[in-house]
Amino acid sequence: MNNKMNHPLITVDGRTLMDRPLEPPNFVVDTLISQGLHILAGSPKVGKSWLALWLAVTVAKGEPVWNMTTKQGTTLYLCLEDSVLRIQNRLFEITEDAPDSVHFCTECALIGQGLEEQVEVFLTAHPDTMLVIIDTLQMVRPIHDATYANDYRDLSVLKRLADKHGIAILLIHHLRKEKAEDVFHRISGTTAISGAVDSSFTLVEEKRGSGRARLTCVGRDIEYRELELRRGEENVWELVSDSRIQPELLEGQIVVLLSAFMSSRTTFIGTPTELSEKIDPDRIEGVTPKKISRLILQSVEALRKNGIQAMVRRSNGKRVIELRRADSADLEGAGEIVPIDPVEALCGDLRAVSRCGE
């Protein structure tokens, strides 16, 4: 019998989960590429590899990607369809100086046949790695039938690798030639490919050779958006426009709203409805009673840095939010809740959060 069958399920009840602080996803490129598995698909010769190379260099430098901040760290670019000479030539076009924290490799093993171990060895040698790019996905897949099960199995291996090490893995892939109302339906392979990744990006030219393209983005941790891009003279994709209307996520906005609210008081204790009505009475900011507890639980550390101790607890069966300003005389017990790891708690191992409800 499978050993897993000998152990009971580790669960967390809804009340405990909703009362515990959770850390929001860590982003390698803010609001765009989070830690996890992602796919960038485009037509042949559309400029996917140029974009991938630029991303690898930009993250390694810690420079912004289209006005979005990056989390600087080592990057690994598996450029499996290119030669070292071609990569060198392209580097000279996109940057004046490539850092030693961006690494290139033109050969590697296949999924399930050594690739994971090779990446693991690299990550051990470079523990600050933030981004691994595989160009292309097809170059690391074993030869087998293109079925849903095979697609999902291959990508699940890479997904587990990304989650285990808290890095972002970006797969470069192809689009089918035939048109579709939903551009994501053009991603080559079965729907398992889109289903297994955390985010999907498609790069589609307005017209072949026009140098203008649309990057369409959808994912579990990002909002749907479309970025209009223009390929510059140095083959760098430049941002023309971004469909993302809201300049800041609510997770950031809640810190601003609560900082302003607490500027004139030392403490607040009340229900989510009461707090929501005080900081966003007209619902202009979209901070509803249902959202406010989650936003606070995911912003405990950010609020602490802004001088606010936050706690969500229960009193007489009702959820209560307690806020204390840092200069308040009585801070005992406030802010002692340590955020749990959402990957560990929600993706297989619920021991940490389930114990909190005991």
Q: What does this 3D model show about the protein?
A:
The chain has 358 residues and is an alpha/beta fold. Helices cover 31% and strands 23% of the residues. The protein is built from twelve helices and 14 strands. It has helices spanning 14-19, 48-61, 84-94, 115-125, 148-165, 192-196, 250-262, 272-279, 289-297, 300-305, 342-346, 351-355, and strands spanning 27-29, 33-34, 36-42, 74-79, 102-105, 129-135, 168-174, 199-205, 212-219, 225-231, 237-242, 267-270, 308-315, 318-325. Helix 8 crosses helix 9 (289-297). The chain is globular, with a radius of gyration of 23 Å.
Largest sheet: 9 strands, mixed
Strand ordering within the main sheet: 5-4-6-7-3-8-9-10-11
Binned strand content: 15-25%
Order of helices and strands: HEEEHEHEHEHEHEEEEHEHHHEEHH
Query: What would the average pLDDT be, to the nearest integer?
Result: 86
Counting DSSP H or I runs of 4 or more residues, the number of helices is 12
Kindly provide the radius of gyration, computed on alpha-carbon positions and rounded to a whole number of angstroms. Answer: 23 Å
Count of β-strands: 14
Shape: globular
Low-confidence stretches: 329-358
**Structural class by secondary-structure content:** alpha/beta
CA distance, first residue to last residue = 31 Å
Helix amount: 25-40%
Assembly state = single chain
